[in-house]
Write a structure and sequence with these properties.
hydrolase, alpha+beta, alpha-L-rhamnosidase activity, alpha-L-rhamnosidase, Immunoglobulin-like, globular, Jelly Rolls, ten-stranded mixed β-sheet, 14 helices, Alpha_rhamnosid, Ig-like_fold, 5 domains, about 20% helix, binds beta-D-glucopyranose
Amino acid sequence: MKFKYFILTFFIAIISCTQVNIQQPKELSISEGFKNSIGFYNAKPTFSWKLPVSEQIKSQFAYQILVASSKELLPDNADLWNSKKQKSTQSTFVKYQGKALKSRQKVYWQVRYWNQDEKASDWSETNSFELGLLNNSDWQAQWTGLDTAKDSIKGVRKFLMHRPQYLRKGFELASDVVSARLYITAKGVFDVHLNGKDVSDDVMTPGWTPYNHRIETLTYDATELLQVGKNVVAVELASGWHSGRISRGSALYENFASPKILCQLEVVLKDGSKQTIVSDESWRGTTNGPIRLASVYDGEVYDANFEIPNWNTAAFDDSNWKSVEVEAIAKNVKLAPKRHLTVKNQTVLKDVEIVSVKENSAIFNLKQNMVGVPKVKVPMKKGDTLKIRFSEMLLKDNTFYTKNYRSAKSTDYYIAAKDGVIEYTPKFTFHGFQFLELSGYDKNAKPDASWVQGIAQHSNFEKKGTFTSSHNKLNQLQSNIIWGLRDNFFDIPTDCPQRDERLGWTGDAQVIAPTSLFNYDVHAFWTAWLQSLRENQSEHKDGMVPFIVPDVLQTKSGSSGWGDAAVIIPWDIYNTTGDITVLEESYESAKKWVGYYQSKVKKQPYLPKMHSFADWLQPYPSKPGKLGNRGDTPKDLIHAAFFAHSAHLVSKIANTLGKTDDAKKYKDLYKAVANAFENEFFDENGKFKQERQTQTSYLLGIYFDLFKPETKLKAQKYLLEEIKNADYHLGTGFLGTPILPKVLDDMGEIDLMYKILFKETYPSWFYSINQGATTMWERWNSFSKADGYNPQPMNSLNHYAYGAIGQWMYERIAGLSSLAPGYQKIRIAPIPNAEFLTSASASVKTPYGKASSSWKIENDSFKLDVIIPPNTTALVSIPTTNSNDVEVNGVKISKNQIIDQKEDKLVIEVSAGTYNINSKFESKK
Ligand code: BGC
């Protein structure tokens, strides 16, 4: 009996042991990080998941994905795709290979994995996505709106302005609603309501694309907003980018054509029938609503006397509104579901201070240069106009510095319809500001800080990384960098958010991309903009990439260092995310840009002659004023350097995509250009031939690997000399600055890089902080307490380019970087410098989970805490000369754990897990 019992328990134990499933995968997403989205843009998605953090789970041995057309079919009857068990460590961006998916289709999916011991996990939770309208032929709606061009209202510089429109359509539903989708977009910007309720909290939709190629569409779940009987769909519509002066009357957008909406509401009713309400000639509209004017650059005018109570509810009678005009959908403009997240309100700045109060006007300080709109709550008298002005900083006498807005009026007005406290937030504009001036409020009222709040807006990506250290100014620099990013990621990456520009400058974008990818989840944001870049590039047979995207300037020539965004950014995205799709999508475009350089080579082999903004805004240029903006590094040198670099990257991309012929061809091209570069611009001693030496000429040659090894060593010496001549200050503009830390790092000159980074005087990063900056500035000397503002009106106080140092702060100060695409292999290699810092730490949400590196110096010891996510490995570099006193998780390391040892560091390899590393700190002195 006893024996039988023993046998039984033995078998039960074996069975339960083999059946103990490990934890399910989590954080499922599709393509560039979308979760359970509706109106999804891509019928060929990729799938990603993360392994849970657990002692049992180091890596993935295999996976299986199931895709089905209904939830009930999972996991046993996946009718769209069963990947079967795939022996692979890949847990990110696995391509869908099932049945073709179509517009509106709702798709459910699950995944499981086997861990390193080949144990299967439970199935994940079921995730879903629903496709948007993928083809123009899915639309029955027509472009609809009033002809506002005929009013001929002229604004700044006589540009045509359109009165914002209020459009509506009532309809009846015969029975309860089972489901409803609202597909909508605009030539302009819109806000949509159903039965008086806001459909979403999106801002300035549909956003900005090259509208002559593609207009993005939004999909909203309208199920809960509809009812049996009478309903209404109501839309507010303004010029936005499409019909505003920011598009400069671009002939491409039909010369200030009146804004229009395209709207299609598809309803499935309980009785099984389907009803579709579309924008067409049956809609009614008026321009006699409260938003009188709205412009991206110039602000909004709101007149409460024009408010139309209940206009967006079903009960409203619109019989005295006008009938609308319609326009058919053009075949050559693609209507495509938005491929990245919309702009939304993100943070509300409430810590406001009153700076000064004069007769009936008051200045408020929001203590942070921000982008978005104000929320004002102000006592007013009927008929009075509240004027709201903005500025980034103040003049010495506490009045506004607005010269740098140039022609952008950036002013909002509110006209009161009655006595009392009004509340107002503009809808169809945005401003870049820290200070706000109110005038025209109730004279008897005493201004109060609570009158004003700042609503910061940006594209709705998540925070991805953190960086902090023991040094206040370095932390302020990190803060300025991330504010600069948020403020300038307003649907597209802009150069600046406040003046009459706010354009997608390609050079600025390529410079900041790596730092942005550390701090925010901007994968989809960048790939969406790259699509716009390719569309604008397609207008040029020679492969030219315009220097702004969307190209409302209708650029005639490309600029070296700017058009290279077509090559550099896809490569950066791939390396950060591991998503090969971006390389596939961008490959032809990248090759064409290199072809553009080739087409510009005339007399001298491999040396193009073209346009360049050069090392934009280098400090101490030899030419005065505006002429000095391009710095002293000759543009011919810059063309050749970027030509070689882009050819080199194309060769690397070709390799990654398995295109070996191209890989060789472009590598040869890079070598040939590099050779020409060295011969033309450097002498046999590795010295830049021009009399006026520049840091950037050396930096480009070294970082882009354009010198023979022996010349490189010599050039490095000259670079160091140049830096010394500048008394360890920066001598670089937009192009040189981001690569300075990489070059010095590579040369082992880390302490020198620290020295430059921690400089307090001009030109340096801390200089602007010492002058009160809360964002990155366009110029190293945009402002100084002693001399005031840079006299040039091109003087943005919110320009992210110089924030490119952020990458090095993550990678080397905190010591966290990706060694293999998408952080599948991680490098932890902090370089502490006790002269400036006693601690630093960074974390990043990698595609595999959170990774972090955090160090501090305590007495004589160096403590390094590391987190390595599942399914990755890491090389950890410990700065010590002596392996005897290194402990990992309390245990002394053994010699065979060390995979590399140099004089001042040793390297160990670790798998997923948490590590506390202790070593003796050796001061360099
Ligand atoms: C923009 C820049 C841009 C530059 C190129 C400026 O007006 O603000 O950031 O890269 O022009 O010339």
